[in-house]
Amino acid sequence: MKPYSTDGNGKDTLIYAHVPSVDPQKVEDVFFELQKWHRQNERELNKMKFAIKKQAEKQTLENTHRFKQELESEKQCHMTLFTQYKEWQLKEQERISKLKINVPEALQSIYE
């Protein structure tokens, strides 16, 4: 801080003398103490953020692994059901192909 400052121009110029009301060393000491406290809080915050990030990554990995297992299980279940359906479909086609149409003798001439 400058000990003197001016305001205005020419004959209207005012000169101000500034005298600190607090010892500058005391201000620096308080500033450095607050800076130290701030940096300590920043370190703790960064540790918390890092721990949260690690926990989130771990949870995401576990969720992905569980999802893949469940997906694989569902795929196997789907394939089993699809196989059973195809088997049923073949059996039904075979059963239906064995069915005979009984045409009454009166309509036999139309049928042929």
* Helix proportion: over 70%
Mean pLDDT: 91
Report the count of strand segments. 2
Q: Give me the side-by-side strand order of the main sheet.
A: 1-2
User: Globular, elongated, flat, extended or rod-shaped: what is the shape?
Assistant: rod-shaped
Structural class: mainly alpha
Q: How far is the first residue's CA from the last residue's CA? A: 119 Å
Largest sheet: 2 strands, antiparallel
Number of helices: 2
Low-pLDDT stretches are none
In percent, how much strand structure appears in the residues? 5-15%
Give the C-alpha Rg.
45 Å
Order of helices and strands: EEHH
Question: Summed up, what is this model?
Answer:
By secondary structure, the chain is mainly alpha-helical. Helices cover 71% and strands 7% of the residues.
Q: What does this molecule look like?
A:
- The chain is mainly alpha-helical and 112 residues long.
- It has a domain at 23-94.
- It is 71% helix and 7% strand.
- It has two helices and two strands.
- It has helices at residues 24-98, 108-111, and strands spanning 4-7, 14-17.
- Strands 1-2 form a two-stranded antiparallel sheet.
- A hairpin with a 6-residue loop joins strand 1 and strand 2.
- It is rod-shaped, with a radius of gyration of 45 Å.
- The mean pLDDT is 91.
